[in-house]
Amino acid sequence: MSKKAGAPRTRNRWGEGERLRGEILAAASRLLSGLDGEDGLTIRGVARAADIAPASIYQHFTDRAALVAGLTDYEFARLHTAMMAARDRVDTGDAAGRVRAMLHASCRFAMDNPGHYRLMTAGGPPRTGQTGPLAEVIDLLVDGFAHCEADGIALRVSARRAAVIAFVGAHGRVVLFQNSAKHADMDSVTSFVDEFLSLVFA
Amino acid sequence: MSKKAGAPRTRNRWGEGERLRGEILAAASRLLSGLDGEDGLTIRGVARAADIAPASIYQHFTDRAALVAGLTDYEFARLHTAMMAARDRVDTGDAAGRVRAMLHASCRFAMDNPGHYRLMTAGGPPRTGQTGPLAEVIDLLVDGFAHCEADGIALRVSARRAAVIAFVGAHGRVVLFQNSAKHADMDSVTSFVDEFLSLVFA
DNA sequence: ACAGTTACCAAACAAGTGTTCGGAGACTTA
DNA sequence: TAAGTCTCCGAACACTTGTTTGGTAACTGT
User: Fold this and answer.
1) May I ask the CATH class of domain A64-200?
2) Nearest C-alpha of chain B: how many angstroms from A194?
3) How many CB atoms are located within 10 Å of the residue B59 CB?
4) Residues paired with B201 in a beta bridge
5) Domain B68-200 adopts which CATH fold?
6) Are A136 and A120 in contact, with CB atoms under 8 Å apart?
7) Of all nucleotides in the shown strands, which has a C1' nearest the CA of B17?
8) Per-domain residue ranges for chain A?
9) Which value does ipTM take for this structure?
10) How confident is the model over B21-46, as pLDDT tens digits?
11) Any strand C atom closer than 7 Å to A20 CB
């Protein structure tokens, strides 16, 4: 943990420059899990967590803002893969079940990583438009609902609308009511999501 | 604006100690509207906005945390009154319209005050439980939906469930998709809310 | 062996932070 | 008039922050 003690840190070799970038993001992500929240997300804090010098970060990120932006993408990628993984664990024939699995996975992610989630939704105008990482996540749900319709499951609104409603509802629930207990409330969230889905399906 | 120039600030008189507290909160609220977001919410920044000395804040708030907590309550009170005002502008006979008005008002509040809204939802465990300012806002909607049921308007879920779903959905929409344009997108948000409500009503 | 490139870091800089302390001015009471 | 109280402020303390500069060690190609 300490920089003075510990092993003399295997320095990155020639041509491995990109490696530290990943380590920095991982360390920042780890840091965001701490109790400090996003306040602890400082250059020096990240450097401390990654066990490197603060100056080293500037070789991979021009700014603190660039670091935060990079971390946001990093977290959205994590969410994206978590949702796809959950979807792929459900049989292809069960289109509704696949959507359900994706929503549950996204809720689990939000509950397990409240700090990360706040960071993701904090992104300014340029990141939350029609394109961007959030849109990719939504598109995942749109595809899911579209498959439902293709399989003859009627929706009360369009697939895109349903995707936005479901995602927004599921995560609004998590963000607004992030109580003390984290895993204990997971059941109430999933049941909330299920009730939500029952409203969307005809 | 400046402390050096400007009028020599009418100092609070004897016995008017509580007045400055309100001025501080108002200044902090104003500050939160700026582009800095919640980062600009510093003791010194608030003092500058209120045109007082930083030290003066400590007579009304023990901590920076206490200031933030006080501001959170202040903003929730603003949201609460805005929703009630919107509701009371609709005829008592139109129960569904009154709910709709409250939701629209809350969305407008969230869109007009994204910074404030982030602060409100950032509150830790002790503030977002079964009681607290958020619960009071939700209860407002529960009452609204309950009146709908009393007036023979069927719901597809319980009044409490409907309130949480509607509030969470409306605000999730705002928080997740707070694009560049603020007022321009108000129409799309209200239509989203309306579609949302059509799902809740049987 | 030599220069060249890459990857990292120690140290410092200027700026801003929360907070405390000893007053100073305005008012009330006597 | 003099003491007492309330309300506010100037100045300082001890920190932390983002960022830059000038290196040094490891490795490459020649």
Assistant:
1) mainly alpha
2) 12
3) 11
4) B155
5) Tetracycline Repressor; domain 2 (1.10.357)
6) no
7) D7
8) 17-57, 64-200
9) 0.86
10) 999 999 999 999 877 677 789 999 99
11) yes
